[in-house]
Write a structure and sequence with these properties.
Helix content: 10-25%
Strand content: 15-25%
Structural class: alpha/beta
Radius of gyration: 17 Å
CATH architecture: 4-Layer Sandwich
Order of helices and strands: EHEHHEHEEHHEHEEEE
CATH class: Alpha Beta
Number of helices: 7
């Protein structure tokens, strides 16, 4: 019996040829991929829908979140946020894929906005509107947020997610508290992501950003899967949320 799966893609960083090859290999092996979900840092030299056109033509869905590097250059930004797949973002939303509910949190924490380490650290600007209102006009990009901060996390993103229904999987670019420095063991992930996942009843967090392939478990019995750079990882839709990764 063919198993259906979601193909999560670790930070592509422009390695689209390799990613397409990995996906084709899985399809050739009989995996029924229901959706492809890149977790940010695309480095797109052409629109996302063109990079994944082969699979879109097969009827495979594409959903995505953004990473910090997706606002490094205007054309990288536009090839993602302005692509034909712009409405397929998971950021601050919950979407259902064949019975599995995915919540999304794109971008990164930045000190100019909100850097919750420790988790109680207050935000300088809870909303995008508040941040833009405090900016000189010459610092705005396209009459709004500076390009860099198009990929910054604001507290309003958490509020939007917390107001929505529960989810099975939280897909984020930043990592939860399981991400630590290899040399010192210092936490470089964020406990607020743990808290968000727990509030939403999530059983699995999938994240990128650190280019680390690992599995872990939070105290709240939430599983964590970190993705390596341009790594394809399959989540089988009939896999029990509490099963081993």
């Amino acid at each position: 019996m063919t198993q259906a799966a979601i193909a999560f893609i670790g930070d592509p960083h422009g390695q689209w040829d390799d990613i397409r090859h990995q996906i084709e290999q899985q399809l050739d092996q009989g995996v029924a991929i229901a959706a492809i979900v890149p977790v940010g840092d695309m480095e797109l030299e052409r629109p996302l829908h063109e990079e994944l056109a082969l699979f879109l033509d097969m009827g495979i869905a594409v959903h995505w979140i953004h990473g910090n590097h997706d606002s490094d250059h205007a054309h990288w930004h536009d090839h993602l946020f302005g692509s034909r797949l712009q409405d397929k973002t998971l950021h601050a939303l919950v979407k259902e894929i064949e019975g599995t509910k995915l919540a999304g949190l794109g971008g990164v924490f930045r000190g100019e906005i909100w850097f919750p380490q420790p988790r109680e650290a207050p935000a300088r600007f809870p909303t995008r509107t508040g941040f833009v209102d405090n900016l000189d006009h010459h610092k705005r990009w396209r009459k709004g947020l500076p390009l860099k901060h198009r990929t910054s996390i604001f507290p309003e993103d958490f509020a939007r997610l917390e107001q929505q229904e529960s989810a099975d999987i939280l897909v984020c670019h930043e990592g939860p508290s399981t991400v630590v420095k290899d040399s010192t063991g210092q936490m470089i992930g964020f406990e607020v992501i743990d808290d968000l996942a727990a509030k939403m009843g999530v059983k699995l967090i999938v994240h990128g950003h650190h280019h680390r392939n690992y599995s872990a478990k939070l105290k709240q019995d939430i599983q964590v899967r970190g993705l390596g750079k341009a790594e394809l990882w399959l989540w089988y839709l009939d896999q029990l949320p509490h099963g081993e990764l």
